[in-house]
Amino acid sequence: MNELYQPIETLPGVGEKRAQKYKKLGIETPYDLLFHFPRAYIDYTSPVMIAEAENGEPVAVRCTVKQKLTPSFVRRGFSLYRVVVSDGISEMVLVFYNTPYTYQAMKPGEEYFVYGKLSGGFLRREMQAPQVQRVQNALLLQPVYPQTTGLTSAMMRTNVQRALQYLDGQPFETLPDQMRTDYQLVSLKQALHDVHRPETQEALDKARRRLAFEELLQFQLGTLMLRHRTDVQNASAMHPADLSAFYAGLPFSLTKAQQHAIEVICRDLCASRPMNRLLQGDVGSGKTVVAAAAAAFAAESGFQTVLMAPTEILAQQHLQTMTAFLEPIGIHPVLLTGSTKAKEKRSIKAQIASGSAQVIIGTHAVIQKDIEFCSLGLVITDEQHRFGVAQRAALAEKGGYPHKLVMSATPIPRTLALIIYGDLDITILDEMPKGRLPIKTFAVTGGYRERAYGFIKEHLDAGEQAYLVCPMIEESDALENVQAAETYAETLKTGAFSAYRVGLLHGRMKPQEKEAAMAAMKAHELDLLVCTTVVEVGVDVPNATLILIENADRFGLAQLHQLRGRVGRGQVQSYCILVTDSRQEDARERLKVMSRTANGFAIAEEDLKLRGPGDFFGRAQHGMPPLMQAAFCSNMPLVSETQMAAKSLLEQDPELRSPALSSLRTAVLQLFAKNGENGLN
Ligand code: ADP
Ligand code: MG
Known about the structure:
Radius of gyration: 29 Å
CATH superfamily of the largest domain: P-loop containing nucleotide triphosphate hydrolases
CATH architecture of the largest domain: 3-Layer(aba) Sandwich
CATH class of the largest domain: Alpha Beta
Strand order of the largest sheet: 12-13-11-14-15-10-16
Largest sheet: 7 strands, parallel
Bound molecules: adenosine-5'-diphosphate, magnesium ion
Number of helices: 26
């Protein structure tokens, strides 16, 4: 039996209780524990002298215990444990509150590394609640783990050390030797050891590089395998067609970016290799008309187009706009959703089967079921923000191999898009239609809330509408956030906005309830919609001109940008008010970026710089594993290296069937299977 894959409680030092805590973190086995990487390291490699240390900055000091002062019990439930230490020149006092353990363990005359913030003056300096380790067997780069209540980094370090012993004497390598030589990668064993117990910064860097390489490689192998499976299929090659009648019927002229996208897509449609393209464009960049052009092009060649939307209300909205674009050239889109009446459904299905319906719009669920097409040539998916690996895998598996176009409104920096969407070709609409009024964005403190409410009321009185995004409680579960939203809505309804029609929208509502709330907003049966972040991307309420976002500092910039995109869709000036009471410099700096720029891609780049790629890989947005290593590496050359490595591996062995690659293959399949039942297999 391999101890690595036994339940975590079999690891010496892990009891029942601690095992439960580990399971909360998704750690079921010693193996999982080894892949739970530190989020940071405390650096003891260059300790400072006490006299040189600045107050308030965390520092490491190497010192000897001079004296342990008698514990003082200040009041009930509050005791102080103090130790006087010296670095050979000056002294300071280490102060521990209520926790005797470290104090008890420290021995006079013995040398320690301590880490913490100093306070106090020239005569008496103190370090409060420091981290302490004996110099004798110190880790100079001491790992700090992502934690959960009741599990400290110290506990994890001990458990990890024990788990590392399990690696001794077993083969434990996933990458081919040749690849490790070519890309100068340390062995997996070495990497796991050094990421948890690095002896030097160099060893740590090498370990991270190896682990990041592997994570990226697995991901790229997965996306390339998906891609390969479609590439070898045959799609219907369409004939070049003249779209001038379509263009003539449009109420506006296209942006350069739109023209370019249409050209690229039409070229793809004329090939027999199925198109697999992602059309990325900020909210309002005009993706729908591009979809309409592609549908018109397909229709000219005698092919049907399907446009799938994630919700019923979006499908209806698409029907309206697509009809406006396509009717002038004699194409009449049909709609098929869950609420289409049986009789009508029969007639529409007949039209689809006979080919008289050329463009079919509907919700995913409905269109994927039992519809028979006459000549399906193009499938367009409007995924809005919900577009992850699982959906892509599902798309790739759908029979018939029509051309595929996916529209997404989440701007992602190019560098990351290359990784996340490695299986797709990408086209970006990076230009807004002319004449759009930029949304005026302000960041204010909570002290301005009443004034902001007053400002909103003025606009509601003028017949406009507004969104209020609720405070989000960090680190609390979804239920608490729902309760907070309900309370917030109730307070507004009975208080500041009692004279207005106030609606509520949150994540725990049923899909129909959510749609009803959005529909009411769209029909102007509500003045104000109180919502959590679920407010449906993509639903167009041109009359909504104001959005106020509470606790704005808790959101990533990209997410704020998405939320802001709910307004600014009509002819009237729109406003976005970001409320924050954060005193943190960088939080306010981030919000200023929002006031300065309206370009989603620029904001995404900024987010990448400020917060690292974590947000973009976050499960919520892309259904992807966090690629932790890549996150703390954020090393882009590695991306192209792994891409090369993945390509050459697949050239030799397209399905990774060779025995030497079996553990890599398993890892890739797991990675994609985790994200939905429709992964690779
Ligand atoms: P999104 O990319 O968010 O899906 P839409 O396709 O809904 O954007 O377009 C947003 C609005 O802009 C629609 O009202 C659409 O008719 C309009 N629009 C699209 N392209 C142009 C253009 N080139 N000039 C002016 N208005 C445009
Ligand atoms: Mg849209």
